[in-house]
Amino acid sequence: MATINTSVSAQTTSKGRLIDARGPRFSAALTTLVLALALVTHSGFLIAFQLAVFTIGGFVGPQKTPYAWIFKTLLKPRLTGEVPTEDVRPPQFAQKVGFVFAVAALAGSISHVSLLFTIATSFCLAAAFLNAAFNFCLGCEMYLLLVRLTNRSK
Amino acid sequence: MRTLAPLLIVLALASAYGVWYRRSRGRITAKKQPAGALTTIKSEEIGTELGSRVTLVQFSSAFCSPCRATRALLTDVVADLPDVVHVDIDAESHLELVRRLGIHSTPTTLILNKAGVEVGRAVGAPKRDQVISALASVK
Q1: pLDDT tens for residues B36-46?
Q2: What residues contact B35, with CB distance under 8 A and at least 6 apart?
Q3: Is B56 helix (H, G, I), strand (E, B) or coil?
Q4: What is the ipTM of this complex?
């Protein structure tokens, strides 16, 4: 019969802008590479760099990061076929989560708390890898749980 | 200390989870309900009348890419079915219902029969042919 319309996914076009869905996936692959190197070499520099990328991705937009720029200038012109689009809000949410974990990892690196660095970098890497390899949607899995935990009284 | 061990552990665990994730997401599972423990949803809880045969209740959130695709698919599938209603609701603003139904992620789609009893659900974006056959099996 009909679809009844009370949802946020209906507001996508008005509230959330649509971007090329392949951009965040490519960015996740680069993020995986950088974080893997950071984890193996215990590099504070690499984590600081990735934190800068997450900061832009989470607070300006995932389509504004250096990784997105590489996608737009090097890859996108070579890709053919229909452009898959997605709402900008889910990848931006994932970048914000990445930002939180990268802050923890950098804190661990600066304070020489090796365990904090390893654990925070590992979670960040796992999420980026899942996104790149399995098209994992972090916002789908985490956001409602966060809301459920923080709104206990409702 | 440079070691590959943490990297290998993370990639192995994430891969195992990823395989499970891809297998489970979108799959429609029939709900076997013991008598007396039926999950029933009333029309006032979802803000619309139930379909005369089936109601598809989709829970969405703002930070969910497959919610859009699910919405488009279900809208399209129910368009030709006069006895099926699809309702797409914001999980965040229906937390009480979300808790009662045990919904943890979006999109989650419940299949209700004409009495509003849950007979199946799909976590993640379902496939078109599975939706069609699931709808056909509800009497």
Answers
A1: 567 889 998 99
A2: none
A3: strand
A4: 0.89
- Alpha-carbon distance of B30 to B47, in angstroms, equals 25
CB contact under 8 A, B89 and A7: yes
Between the alpha carbon of residue A137 and those of residues A4, A67, B97, B128, the distances in Å are 25, 19, 23, 20
Q: Which residue from A minimizes the CA distance to B64?
A: A140
Residues 6+ apart with CB under 8 A from A80: none
Amino acid at A57: G
Q: Write out pLDDT tens, residues A14-65.
A: 467 899 999 999 999 999 999 999 999 999 999 999 999 999 999 999 999 9
Domain range summary for chain A, segments of one domain joined by +: 20-74+86-150
Longest dimension (CA), chain A: 61
Specify the residue for token string 């737009």: A72
CA distance B32 to chain A (A): 24
Contacts for B118 with CB less than 8 Å, ≥ 6 apart: B31, B33, B38, B39, B40, B41, B101, B110, B111, B112
Domains recognised in chain B with CATH numbers:
26-136 (3.40.30.10)
Among A135, A116, A111, CA closest to A39: A116
- Which SS3 state, helix, strand or coil, does residue A113 take? coil
**DSSP character string of B86-135:** EEEEEGGGGHHHHHHTT--SSSEEEEE-TTSBEEEEEESPPPHHHHHHHH
Report the chain B residue with the minimal C-alpha distance to residue A4. Answer: B87
What CA–CA distances, in Å, run from A126 to A38, B14, B16, B104, B124? 13, 6, 11, 20, 20
